[in-house]
Amino acid sequence: MTPKQLKFASEYIKTGNATKSAIEAGYSKNTAAEIGKENLKKPYIKAYINEKLSEIESHKIMDAKEALQLLTRIARAEETEIVTVGTPDGLQQAEQPPSIKDRLVAVKELLRRYSISDIDKLQIKKLSAEIRVIETKANVAERLENRDNEQLDEILDKLTDEVLSNGSKSASNE
User: How many CB atoms are closer than 10 A to CB 46?
Assistant: First the structure.
């Protein structure tokens, strides 16, 4: 490929316009449209352009390894996100790690890629039930914040027993 053809190809990759690319490469304005069309028909120029465009596109798309690494960082709460929080002084932005629910989703996505034994599946169901218990306790605590702590503990213990017994019944049915 000549230096002019290389310059044409590089410009074409940037602009997608054959005529403008030919002019930028140093071809005459009078013949730029025709030369641009001709250059795009030449197999070696076309191959060069396609190869470079493929390289550019492949860098834009996350590969499987990168996706698994991101899911792992989320599951380990190593990734954070910026959230807007209302404060007495107005809205402020803060970094926040992923919620337990988001972390669990990431773990489930990771585990889909691996063979899991029945024991592992039961352990995952148990952990899911425990997470539901924690979330339920938090919700109940918010609603009953002004009540007696002993009464709250009794209610939460009953809820925990119910959720865990329901979780073990459904796990044994499978």
Answer: 13
Predicted confidence (pLDDT) per residue in 59-103, tens digit = 777 777 888 889 899 999 999 988 888 888 889 898 889 988 998
Residues contacting 42, CB < 8 A, separation 6+:
5
Please state the length of the chain: 174
79 within 8 A of 106, measured Cβ to Cβ: no
d(CA 66, CA 58): 13
- In three-state secondary structure terms, 166 is helix
Among all chains, which residue has been given the structure tokens 């940037």? 14
- How much is the pTM? 0.38
Query: What ranges in 26-148 are assigned the alpha helix state H?
Result: 32-41, 43-60, 64-75, 100-111, 118-143
User: Strand pairing partners for 85?
Assistant: 92
Rounded Cα gap, residues 128 and 135, in angstroms? 11
